[in-house]
Structure formats: C-alpha cells, structure tokens
Amino acid sequence: MNDIPTSESLRERLGRIVGARHILTDPDDVAPYCVEPRELYRGATQAVVLPGSTKEVAAILRLANETATPVVPQAGNTGLVGAQVPDETGREIVLSVARLDRIRDLDADGGTMVAEAGVILERVQEAAAEAGLFFPLSLGAQGSCRIGGNIATNAGGTGALAYGSMRELVLGLEVVLPTGEVWHGLRRLKKDNAGYDLKQLFIGSEGTLGVITAAVLKLFAAPRGRAVAFAGLASPQAALKLFRGARAAAGPALTGFEILSRTGLEFVTAHLPGARDPLAEPHPWYALLEVSSARSEVDAQAMLEEALTAALEAGTIADAAIAASLDQAAQFWRIRHGLAEVQRHEGGSIKHDVSVPVALIPEFIARAEEAVIRAVPGARPVPFGHMGDGNIHFNVSQPPGVDKAAFLARWEEVNAIVHGIVAEMGGSIAAEHGIGRLKRGLLAEVRRPLELDLMRRLKRALDPNGILNPGRVI
Amino acid sequence: MNDIPTSESLRERLGRIVGARHILTDPDDVAPYCVEPRELYRGATQAVVLPGSTKEVAAILRLANETATPVVPQAGNTGLVGAQVPDETGREIVLSVARLDRIRDLDADGGTMVAEAGVILERVQEAAAEAGLFFPLSLGAQGSCRIGGNIATNAGGTGALAYGSMRELVLGLEVVLPTGEVWHGLRRLKKDNAGYDLKQLFIGSEGTLGVITAAVLKLFAAPRGRAVAFAGLASPQAALKLFRGARAAAGPALTGFEILSRTGLEFVTAHLPGARDPLAEPHPWYALLEVSSARSEVDAQAMLEEALTAALEAGTIADAAIAASLDQAAQFWRIRHGLAEVQRHEGGSIKHDVSVPVALIPEFIARAEEAVIRAVPGARPVPFGHMGDGNIHFNVSQPPGVDKAAFLARWEEVNAIVHGIVAEMGGSIAAEHGIGRLKRGLLAEVRRPLELDLMRRLKRALDPNGILNPGRVI
Q1: Which of A25, A203, B217, B307 has its CA 20 to 30 A from that of A366?
Q2: Cβ of B201 and A205 within 8 Å?
Q3: In 3D, which of B465, A207, B461 has the Cα closest to residue B453?
C-alpha cells in the first residue's frame, strides 16, 4: 500500500453499508473521483462509496460523524472550484451520489419531477420533454453533471435569464444531514410559508451542510416555438443596448442572451470540430439571442426579427443571422457552449467567474481587459457569458508561445487584478461556480467578518463535528 | 399607570436612541400598534419605538439584547397571523420601521430599487412605474403594507404566478441582527454564489431572526399591454382545465389566474360599493385571467382571446367578459382584491391559507367544503385564490343568523378538519400568510421533530438570547 492513513475497520464498515461492489479503494478505481475537470486539484482518498439509497447515505454519514471521518460529496464531478474532490491527505472519503439515479416521479399535470441527486441533467431535460414539458436549466456540462450537484452549487447557466438559477427551480429537497438524520422535505408546493424555508440552506451550500439525495423540480410549459440569432456588434456597450431593446420587445420571452468576443469565436472555430462563424465578416463582439414563444415558431421569429430590425436600424448591431432551422439554432448554441472547453487548446487559462450589476458590464470588461493586458502583455482575455444576469466568465488565455506553467503561476496576481475591479463595482467573485477550495481564501477577503461569522454559525448549527466537506466554502 | 411591568430606565434609554418624539408610551398612542387587522390578537406594550435610521435600529436591538427585552418588529401591521403585534404581557416593545421610508436609489438601467423597510408597497409599485419599469408584487393590502413586512413574510399575492413570491424579487438585504450587529447585504447582483446566501434566512422568517431595514428589489420591464377577463365556470375542475389551456397558450405571459366561487362574488357585490357581477348569468365558479404582453395591448388581447375561444369551444367555460378598458380591468381586479375584506360583513369567518399541489385543487375544495358543511351545517365556504400557485384561501363564513362568537369558538375544530385534508394531500397549512402566533401550535403538528429542531438551531444561532419576536413561528 502507500502512506495514506487508512482505517481497515472503517472501510469494512462502509462496505457493509453499501455492499462490497460499491466501495472503491483501488488507486486506479478511485483516481477519476480524485481529480476535477481542470486538474487544478488532484487528491487522494481511502475510499469512494457509492450508496444506492437515501438510507445508505444516512448510514454512511452516521458512521462518519461517529468516527470523525471527513466526507466529500460528489455528483457529476464537473464543478470548477474543487469542492467535490478529496484533498491530498487521503483521509477524506468520497460519497458519490451517482447510483441515486432514479426519476422517482413525474407529475405532468402538476408540473413537477422528483429526481434523485445522481440523475444527469440532460436526463432531467429529456424526461421533461417526453412529458411535453420543459426543464430550463442548461449548461455546457449537462451531459455529465448531476442534478444534486447542480442544486448544491445553485447552478446558473444560460436559462437563468428567464427562468432563474437552480434555487428558483427547486420546490422541495430530501437531505441527509451530517449527523445522518434524514430531512424529508420533498414538498411539491409553489407556496409554502410554514416556518423557515429549510431547503434554502442546502441550495448553493456546496455540500457543506448536508447531502442532497433527491429534489422536487419545477417543470414548465414547453415553448411551442424558438428562434435563435447570432449578431455581430462593435462593443459590449452595443451588446447592452441590444439586450435592453430585446428585453423590452420580448419581455419574458427573451430566454437567452449571451455575449462573446471575437477572440472567443476564433478559439471555437479553430478547435471545435465543425464550428463555423455564422457571419460573413468578423466583428469585435457577438451576441447570441434566443426568443421562445408559447404560441408558435412564427411568433418567436416575429419577436426576434422585430428586436433585430430595430437594432439594425438604430445601428446597435452590424449584422445578424437568424437560425433557419433547429439544426442551425443548435449550431449557434454549440458555439456558446463550446467556449468553456476550447480554451485549453490555447494553453494556460486563468479563470474568473464574476458578476457585476448588469448596467456595468461594459465598464467592467473594458477595465479588466486593460488592466490584465497591462500586467501580462500579450495575454488574451476571452470574456463571455450571461449578459442579462450580469455574469461574465472573464477568462484570460496565455500569450501565444510563452511557458504555460510560468503563465499559470501568475493566477493569483491576475485574480487580484480582476477581483479588485469586481469589488470596486459591487460585484461577486463567485457568480455561479461557487467557492469550493479555489476561492475560499478570497471569500474571507470580500466578505465582512460578520458575514463569515454568520456562515460559520450556520455550519456549526448543522455540522457540529465539521465532517462534511471541510475546508470548502467556509 | 396600570399593572404592566415597565422599566422607566429602559424607556429613557430607548428615548435617547430615537428621540423623545419617536417613542410612544401613552395607551392611546400605542393602541393601534397592539391590535392586528382581524382583531384576533390585542396585546399591550411598554413602548413603541420608531427609529429613523438603521443605526438607531441597531442601538435599540443592542439595548434589548443586553437587557433581555423582547422586541416585536412591525412594518405595515397588515399581517394576518399575529406575528407583528405584542403579546398581552406588556413586556414586549414594538419596533416600528414606519419611519424608514426612503427609496434610497432607483437604477432604471440596472432594473433595481433600494427601498427601506418602511416604504409602502404601493409606493414601490408607483416609483417603478414612474421609471418605466414594473414591480410585480400585488396584494389586497398594498396601500398600507410595507415592503419590510412583505419580505419578512415572503408575501405572495396575485403576481407570484408569473414573477414568483417576494423571495424571488429580492436581490439584497440590510438586516440588523438580534445582537444589534448590522449585516450589509445590499447587493444588486442577479447571480452571486459567494458563500451561503444569507438573505434567504431572513426572507420569510417573520421577524424572528433579524430586523430587515432595507432591500434591493428586482424591477421588470413594464408590459406594453395587458388584457383581463372574467370567466364563468361550472366547477374548480373546469377552472383547472382553463388554467392549463391558458398557461399553454400564453406561457409566461399569463400573469394572473385567480378563482372564486359564486358565494364570494355575491359577498363582493353585496358589500363592496360599486362592485357588479361582470357576467349576465350566475355561474358556480369564476376565474379572473390576466395576460401581459411585452409588445402591445393588441397582442395581449389576442393571446387572451385565443385562450378563451379555445375554452368556450371545448365547453370549459360557460361565458366570459374581456375588459374593454383599463377601468373595467381594474373593476375585475377589484372584485378579487375585495374578497378578503367583504367577508367580515357576513359575520364570523374561520380562515385557512393553504396550498396543495396545483393539480389537486379541485379535489381539495370538494373534500373541504363537504367536510366543513357536515361539521357546521349552514356554514358558507368562500374558497378563493391563486390557482396557479396551488394556494387557496379556504375561508368559512358563519351560517346566517347564528351567534358569531359561538361560530368562532369552533375555529380550531374547523381548522383541524381543513388542515387534516391539506396534510393528507401533501399541502401546507401556511401557504403565504406565515405562521406567526396563530399557527405556531399547528406547525408543531405538521412538521417533523427534526424540522422543528433545525428551525430552533437556526433561531439559536442568530438570536442566542431569544429577544426577537419570541413565541412567533418557532
């Protein structure tokens, strides 16, 4: 074996809970659970347990609480801040919810689905669609992320503009507390003010306050028509103007508004197989717009055309392509969703997931680009994201040709520059990806002592022995 | 004086904080603060303090915490569960936020308003409208309720169908904790996952965890057109079918869907000056529909007509009137909003603010009506409310001619019948009005011990000395 401190008896007891087939201890077997997607964190674990029921999750946490064993909950392992992988000590066990993957119930009349934590987001979307309904959470990792993780991180994505983040899409939760007690909160109610709304505690707490095992999700009427356009613009200011016009013209029917810079588009066309620039000429900035109609595709097209015609006449946009088919619409969206992935082909990338008040996005991008390039000449900012939510992924690719490691060594320095501007503008350093381990030190800098103290009080109130995801968030 | 235990020195110290003009101790002056709208609770207080700033609120709570003085926060005093009035002991002081009534900021570009807790809801609506925007919270008491109370109770109302309850309309909060510490959380961000979302704790906690002093509210693009209809139906089943059709036809543009029974309409036309039945013939049930369009009034009318025509053809509705003018639309809404008030003209009324999964509303109404009339022959159920949210105000007016007090003496018995059915259907006994004092005993019956324990842990974590609104909620 190796030098990782292990406890044979603990493993045996865990094995009795989940069955020998569902506890992994071999280094090769546990390896995929120990590294996160960007490989910023590579940990070790004495065991990965894969419970098959809420009862088993409860037994695991009871045992962990008794033996002071730290537990790291993991869903799809797509999180970007290191909350879901074990640390380097090997002491932490990984509790994977991957086997909790049943859709327990789908009530088309009531517009609700009860899904277990391990159900993959895309399966939730598909099951809703099969019932003639719609689940709006949509993000790049939807083919592998699991709904429990989406809830634990209050995932945002591109649908948040019209439908809200994950917090707004959850009606009820089933949660195993760090003590092993099970909170049965799978309520299907749109309004319920009977005491404190306990589910709010667990949504977005990144697995530090409880392990979500199942959820009641809100389903929506499926739009009868969608129209998608890709517009070329001169600047983020123009994009903000276009956003306002489109929002005024379409109201809640504006279901998508994403922006990206020319650099981002070039990365996608260079590295994403089959991706093409939808417009004939290059433009400094692009916006992807989606309008959904409850009535018809014709209606969606009409709303979108109205918004674009007005913007063309006002000179807000330089050019635009409206998707002529579902396939073309999917291609436009593929450009946007591909952005997260293609950056790794351009060498090192220093990431920021930030938000500012919507009206300040152009100012933020201008200031951040200028400051970053001043600090790292040749660096290539790739800002993109959810303009309507004030949420920009301000990623910075290395200057071509320089040493990747040397560039990445400046991660904290570049972070400090960008987050300093965010702080001055009243923004957030963790808009939708959370804090995890990556930003835990930063949290202490941007939150006042009273706030950190309140968070610690909540943590202590729910996890008195501090066994659940310790060292993450707070 | 009287036999209420008072502390001269406490009053003096409070007076020094807020100024002599802003502390009330005379029985006549404090009386309006001691009784709630339905006069179910009539309390006493040693003093009502009206702080003029967040700093003064903090000083009051610091003093109260030091001297173990219980404090009851009060906003517009329109709550219906007794959370906002002092108890009968006279020990509790009332902290009114009425003087915190500034709109600190309105950012039309960013779609946010910073309002202090004492701003009356109607003023929030008006200020948004003046800026060409829209604040969707809408309820009967909007002319006197104050936004701090709306947040503390997570108010719902008729706009919740499309825009969500108050929880969904708040971006940030400023809160004074029971210890007198001020949490500065007035963030204007649509996405912010930097640590636990502390504001969620205070929203809906009915003044038991902190005193909200200001909030950042979300403003929306004002619809360019609205259309309102009043439809006559045979039954709640038909209303549910109409709701589904309208929702499918209009999607998020369906911004109102309320139901009421014939009894409710008769109460309104009998007691609300100027109110008339919008339809020529009587119907057992009615639905009020509102459709809003981002584009135009013509578009809103078209969507509404489409939905109604389909429903008439399918035999779902018997008749319908579409408001021909803004004035007529206001009259339709006045019928709905008048319902809460007119019941008192019909003698005693036993109230229930309940929710069930939307698809179960017809079954709930049928079962509850039958059970209540069996228990109290001649009693007149007046169910009405927010069908799309599964939220029914199942109020029961006394049989005509019987003694009001004798009828009201059966409050708990009738509650038990209705809430028993609600519990069987997985519903909530407190859908939008909260728990307060009225339902505190019931909460213990409908929530499991673990849930109550979790609520108590939160209460202790935030209010270790239990000075803030003790005996309410938990």
Answers
A1: B217
A2: no
A3: B461
Question: Whole-model pTM?
Answer: 0.96
- Contacts with A443 (C-beta within 8 Å, 6 or more apart), sequence order: A429, A430, A435, A452, A473, A474, B194, B195
> The tokens of A311 are what?
């913007």
Helices marked H in A251-294 = 262-271
Yes or no: say if B155 and B139 are a contact pair by the CB < 8 Å rule: yes
ipTM of the shown complex? 0.95
Contact B152, B204 (CB under 8 A): yes
Shortest Cα distance, chain B CAs vs residue A20, angstroms: 32
- The DSSP secondary structure of B309-378, one letter per residue, reads HHHHHTTS-SEEEE-SSHHHHHHHHHHHHHHHHHGGGGS-EE--EEE--GGGHHHHHHHHHHHHHHHSTT
Beta carbon pairs, A and B, within 8 Å:
262
- Pairwise CA distance, residues A190 & A56, whole Å: 30
CA distance A447 to B196: 11
State the SS3 of B366-398.
Answer: HHHHHHHHHHCCCCEEEEEEEHHHCEEEEEEEC
Blockwise average pLDDT, block size 10, chain A, 474 residues: 59 97 97 93 96 98 97 97 97 98 95 97 98 95 97 96 97 98 97 97 98 97 96 98 94 96 98 97 98 95 96 97 96 94 94 96 98 98 95 97 96 97 96 96 93 98 98 96
Spatial CA neighbour of A373 closest among A344, A394, A343: A394
**Which of B111, B249, B427 is nearest residue A189 as measured by Cβ atoms?**
B427
- What the block records as the tokens of B327 is 């004035």
Task: State whether A190 and B303 contact (CB < 8 Å).
Answer: no
A244 min Cα distance to partner chain B (Å): 9
